[in-house]
Amino acid sequence: PTAFAPAPPAALGPQTFGMPTTPQAQSQSPMLGMIVAKAPMRSDFVAVDNSGTKLTISLTSPGDLPSPLTLVNEMAFFLLPGATLPPKTGLM
Q: How buried is residue 22: exposed, middle or buried, by Cβ count under 10 Å (0-12/13-18/19+)?
């Protein structure tokens, strides 16, 4: 398995994450969650293309993330319960 390497604080902002899914599945229920230390869990990712394979989430600091951003030293992304991926696919 590939280890997750957090983005440097300067790179934080709207981020795009590939997820093999359909726009219909995204609109039905969230599939992807994100946890940042000292911040609430987020699952409000939005598809940014018609295929639904790229998602984005907007983060602000202060607000969604601790301030200063140098306090963010870990981020975790995960599939929410009930989310499934097609065979031979994965998250990156």
A: middle
**DSSP letters for 16-39:** EEE----HHHHHHS--EEEEETTS
Give the model confidence (pLDDT) of 10-63 as tens digits. Answer: 444 443 334 434 444 444 567 889 999 888 899 999 988 887 778 889 999 888
Cα–Cα distance for residue pair 82/51, rounded to 1 Å: 20
**Local structure of 11: helix, strand or coil:** helix
Closest residue by Cα to residue 59 from 42, 71, 74? 42
Q: Which residues pair with 42 in a beta bridge?
A: 34
Strand 15-18 versus strand 54-57 pairing type: antiparallel
Q: How is residue 14 written in tokens?
A: 């709207």
